[in-house]
TrEMBL record:
Biased segments, Basic and acidic residues type: 113-122
Biological source species: Oreotrochilus melanogaster
Cellular localization per UniProt: Mitochondrion intermembrane space
Region Disordered: start-end pairs: 18-39, 102-138
Protein known as: MIA40 protein
This protein's encoding gene: Chchd4
Amino acid sequence: MSYCRQEGKDRIIFATKEDHETPSSAELVADDPDDPYEEHGLILPNGDINWNCPCLGGMASGPCGEQFKSAFSCFHYSTEEIKGSDCVDQFRAMQECMQKYPDLYPQEDENEEKEKSSKDLEATPMEAPVAKEQKGSS
């Protein structure tokens, strides 16, 4: 027979083999497409943007959240032939806001990226002679 025990905030349920042999009597509730708390991904069934989607990485709620929402909404609903070409002002405002918070929105410039890639390349030749020595000694 199964039993429960409480450890702090956790509730531990022990189930026996017999408990699992009987079919579950739980009834599943149909998903409500209009449930605002249900996770639907980036776009909700009604076509709106789901600002709570984890895929946005919290950008919609940071100090530049309103600028992000404005720019992202503009891009999402853009009907221009080059999608988002009518959103330059919103993206500029978002970028200007992000530059005010470099700790929250770090920006790598091209020089940093080049330094990283050159360091990676410097590490690669060091490994190559080891591989040659191993091949030659066998």
